[in-house]
Amino acid sequence: QVQLVESGGGLVQAGGSLRLSCAASGRTFSTYGMGWFRQAPGKEREFVSAISWSGGITQYADSVKGRFTISRDKSKNTMYLQMNSLQPEDTAVYYCAAGGMSTRRLDYDIWGQGTQVTVSS
After folding, report:
1. What Å distances lie between residue 57 and 52, 93, 113, 116, CA to CA?
2. 73: Cβ–Cβ under 8 A, 6 or more apart, which residues?
3. For residue 104, with 0-12 CB atoms within 10 Å meaning exposed, 13-18 middle and 19 or more buried, which class applies?
């Protein structure tokens, strides 16, 4: 079983950058597709980005395309989300997930606890 722990969230001004990390435990990490989702107050959890088990295929929500970059380092059992040109509407709790490479929450069966990202204007 894989367990996920996110880190790297914080408070940043609009236009700034943050890099989120998702550290995974468990020997089967490399076989999972992975994804990032986010949930703003009063809103549904939404897809942000996903990456295949090999790292060779990536997918992004239109709202973050060109600003965010997903990657994974199998040697470190870690997935990353580099977030540039952050805007106040990016403010949310960010969750990493494992299970498949999909835009749908139900395709992921392992979730982290989330990390808060707050972007001030």
Report:
1. 5, 24, 25, 26
2. 79, 80
3. exposed
**Cβ-based neighbours of 4, under 8 Å, separated by 6 or more:** 22, 23, 24, 96, 97, 98, 110, 111, 112
Residue 4 has pLDDT above 70, yes or no: yes
Cβ contact 4:99 at 8 Å: no
Exposed/middle/buried for 71, CB within 10 Å: 0-12, 13-18, 19+?
Answer: middle
In sequence order, the 6+-apart residues with CB closer than 8 A to the CB of 63 are: 89
- Residues whose CB is less than 8 angstroms from the CB of residue 23 and which lie 6 or more positions away in sequence, other chains included: 4, 5, 7, 76, 77, 78
Q: What is the pLDDT of residues 9-58, one digit of tens each?
A: 999 999 999 999 999 987 666 778 999 999 999 999 999 999 998 889 99
